[in-house]
Specification:
- With 338 residues, this protein is of the alpha/beta class.
- It has 2 domains: 196 residues, Rossmann fold (3-Layer(aba) Sandwich); 128 residues, Nitrogenase molybdenum iron protein domain (Rossmann fold, 3-Layer(aba) Sandwich), CATH 3.40.50.1980.
- A hairpin with a 5-residue loop joins strand 9 and strand 10.
- The N terminus is likely disordered.
- It holds the Pfam family Peripla_BP_2.
- It comes from Nocardioides renjunii.
- InterPro entries: ABC_Transporter_SBP (IPR050902), ABC_transptr_periplasmic_BD (IPR002491).
């Protein structure tokens, strides 16, 4: 975990990211105004540093008006219970699960997708956390160089680093490193410990069941003429490893990649996992498979051996373990139906 605590005597901040023109943002004063949802002793850990994508960011005080961009970042914050430290969120891929729905609804939604830079500035954020590098476009949050020159701390998921060399090897440990870094940034490190322990226990049960043993699986994300598939370097592979299944496209290094229907036909998978997202629903993909004269002859299509997973449960984050549990349960159901 790449986190360092700085002495409280530090007066200058290195590599702090602040939004240009955000002079009206509330200043932190832990003595007179600790901000919402203060936890006992949380102010004493600041300032702290969090590092990702080759950048170290210093947070001088506990965030009180953070903004999360992308569903993965939002759900890490919700899982850590810091919704009352958020000034806004943006950009969902699918529905927020019921367990966090009330918390999510308590936070302002700045935009359906990315907010404009003006709308983001209007929220007066004191911390910006995103899952994908696209959030730090000049027209959205601003580039990280621009933010570095101006003033609000920010953090980009290590899985969203633009340079491949900066991304961690995919693993649940790497997911949990991000959770721990974000928890420290928000001043609630103890909540990360509890969350990681819960997810490890869930994974232990999934691996013991090994519901996917002996199964060849196609992870179908989207596409028609060319299938966009879960490959060997990301969330889909971690889920399939957890359930003991073999990934038809596990030999491709990226998290997701262009596959070929020829390889799918040759592999004739036992099960097809369908990502369900706003831009490509599971139902749309089933319709495509069953309408194609060649693909409908696949064993998995003929048997309707489909497993449906929300897209947000296939990306590295706090729902990936839930995705593995869902895949495991559905594989058990398919086996029982045969």
């Amino acid at each position: 975990m790449r986190i360092a605590l700085l002495p409280k005597t530090v007066l200058s901040v290195t590599a702090v990211l602040v939004l240009s023109g955000c002079a009206g943002a509330p200043e932190a004063d832990s003595a007179s105004d600790p901000g919402p949802a203060d936890t006992s002793g949380s102010a004493s850990i600041f300032p702290v540093e969090v590092t990702s994508c080759g950048r170290t960011t210093t947070l001088a005080a506990r965030p009180r008006r953070a903004v999360t961009l992308n569903q993965g970042a939002t759900e890490v914050a919700l899982a850590l219970g810091v919704e009352d430290q958020l000034a806004g969120t943006a950009y969902l891929d699918d529905a927020v699960p019921a367990k966090w729905a009330a918390a999510y609804e308590s936070v302002d939604v700045l935009a359906k997708e990315y907010p404009s830079r003006e709308d983001l500035l209007a929220a007066q954020p004191d911390f910006v956390y995103a899952s994908y590098g696209s959030a730090f476009d000049a027209k959205v949050a601003g580039t990280r160089d621009e933010l570095d020159a101006a003033g609000t701390p920010s953090y980009l998921s290590p899985f969203g680093c633009e340079e491949a060399a900066d991304r961690p090897e995919p693993s649940f440990d790497a997911v949990w490193d991000e959770v721990e870094s974000v928890a420290t940034a928000f001043g609630v490190p103890e909540r990360a410990e509890e969350l990681v322990a819960e997810q490890q226990a869930l994974l232990d049960g999934i691996e013991e069941t090994a519901a996917g043993t002996g199964l060849d699986v196609l992870w179908f994300d989207s596409g028609d003429r060319t299938p966009y598939v879960g490959a060997g370097g990301g969330g889909p592979q971690l889920v399939l490893d957890a359930v003991g299944a073999s990934n038809v496209f596990g030999g491709l290094d990226d998290a997701w990649a262009d596959g070929t229907w020829e390889k799918v036909v040759a592999a004739n998978p036992d099960v097809i996992v369908l990502a369900d997202a706003s831009w490509s629903s599971a139902e749309d993909k089933i319709d495509y498979l069953e309408a194609d004269p060649v693909l409908r002859q696949l064993d998995a299509v003929a048997a309707e051996a489909y497993v449906v997973v929300p897209f947000s449960e296939s990306t590295p984050g706090v729902r990936l373990a839930d995705g593995a549990a869902s895949v495991s349960d559905q594989l058990v159901e398919l086996a029982a139906a045969r």
